[in-house]
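Per reviewer request, we include the raw input and output of the structure prediction for the construct analysed in the revised manuscript.
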Amino acid sequence: MAKDLLLITPPFTQLNTPYPATAYLKGFLNTRDISAFQMDLGIEVILKIFSKDGLRDIFDRAQANNSISSDNCHRIYALKEDYLKTIDSVVSFLQGHNATFARQICTPNFLPQAVRFDQLDDLEWAFGSMGHQDKAKHLATLYLEDLSDFIVECIDENFGFSRYAERLGRSANSFDELYLHLQNNITYIDQLTLDILAERLITVKPKLVCFSVPFPGNLYSAFRCAQFIKRNYPKIKVSMGGGFPNTELRSLTDTRVFKFFDYITLDDGELPLELLTAHCLESRSTESTTLLKRTFLIKEDAVFYNNLSTKSDYKQSEIGTPDYSDLLLDKYISVIEIANPMHSLWSDGRWNKLTMAHGCYWGKCTFCDISLDYIKIYEPIAAKLLVDRMEELIAQTGETGFHFVDEAAPPALMRALALEIIKRNLTVSWWTNIRFEKSFGQDLCKLLKASGCIAVSGGLEVASDRLLALIQKGVTVEQVARVNRNFTEAGIMVHCYLMYGYPTQTVQETVDSLEMVRQMFQLGILQSGFWHQFALTAHSPVGLNPEKYHIIPDYQHITFANNDIQFTDTTGIDHEQFSYGLKKSLFNFMHGICLDHPLQEWFDFKIPKTAIAPNYIENALAEEPVLNSKPNAKIVWLGNTPLMETITKSKKGHSWKLLKMTFHDKSSSMSITVDYEHGEWLRDTLANMLVANGKISTYGQLKTDFELQFENFELFWYSKALQTLRNYGLLTL
């Protein structure tokens, strides 16, 4: 099974689905006939730990090391036989096997319980609306978290399901601390990781090992693995790329990093990896003759940024379909979080990852790293090609769920994607990130829902029009509210990213932002949210021009990582004090409780009363829709062929025919009655506008066609009968 390249995601990223970076790269390498094997070291280590043999070893080590100190861990150890008896069955259930085991898990006192189960009393309200499968998943998740607490206390303080030794990688301006840590003896988790890696190196026999490091929590393991390769397989070249180096390592100067890695690449990895592969396989003796792309290496005892190649990066249409082969797709663990609907969606189940467009079409938000190419360079992918890739992934993985991982998916491309999915009669589920654009009208949201869209997430950030303007978000609170309403009414879940502590933000604006959010939840137009405190990053407009935003950055000497920057807010406001109250209130709002409580109740310090009227959002939603269509507006029909019945009416010796048209959708039926000739025209027109036919008419074309036979198209089009059809799939886009 020898391969030229070994692509690795180091521990730990996520439990439920592979992080897509290596799959993207392997898909590209396939187009270049470069052989590669990929592995997710994180899930393999997790499965090793959370097994009967793995837990027995952990319990024995904890006892031998006398490292059990807390009452909680003493309890877990006392129940070790119960954990050993149940662990394999619990993991198998979370992998999607043995669905009947859910009822056993839900049986009182079946699973051993430690401190994580203390929250059950607070969550009992949620279980009332959960089926056995979801309840069992949540209980099993708490069970694993208890065991994780035991590992952290007794075996390895740095352990975490999705982050390992994250502190060592977060904004480490200097390499010193991480370097010293890497001189320590390897940990138990390290040993498990390296054992698996060693087996794979023997079978794959790669010439180049590439680590994709998306987050700070992957960094330590990547270095530890690279260290192992250098010590034991010195002929193998080692490279690092991914989200972490893309954002953090652009100012790298510390030569010690290259005792572990031969190369570090930045930004889009396809072309840099192709050139690097050619260089490594050709065994060139001198770096000076090598033309690489966005690649750090050592040259003359100093860090050198080799960007000498003049080759252009590949277009998104050229990089191929992500390839998930080699990965243990049936072994990932689906956990469930009931506290946050979007987080639950994220972690419950396996999602195929795709991208609609490279970069962000907006590219103006002042808190975002918009100066970096992965955001700055915008390139959409044609809808037909996207759906081709979806069909390829369905065939490969057997999964029909898709998460489009865009910075912000363009509305026009989402529309084209939805039409293409419907045209091909695919049954899929998908979700993505958006901006709350005005173009997400009621009809577009209905179209997206019909194509399988189940959720969207977007940045409301600070629900203050002044601050949204300062952020250059390009939206208003009222606009966000109306878009949220449109998605919600279409049956699409809405998640909002929320921010506090943005430069110049006042206490009053924080309180008013919370009130806006409260009203949205109260009106049922927002289902999920998450508050995070503003962080200053080096590559954002705020980071590049802090004086404009009235903050004072604390710049450090950079030899290693450079992204998050500490700063002083000249307002003098302690924004951190709002953290607990904002998050606690949101937790309750997401579950429909305490929505009528005064805002003051969420804080243990005095806050000003909100200046927002109690019906502000309600009034924003009361705006009447304008019945006006542009000539180039696309008109589509998602409904079925109607049943037709001719009706004859007579009055004062005069007879005329009407056409009764009965429409059925999945849950109901509806009838309209129109003039017979108008009805015949409508019948034929609806048949022509079916998305499956591949022909989409515009409003202007329909008007012209209608008025070849009749008069006053607007009177007919905006009649009560035609407006009724909107709910049955007559959409203006």
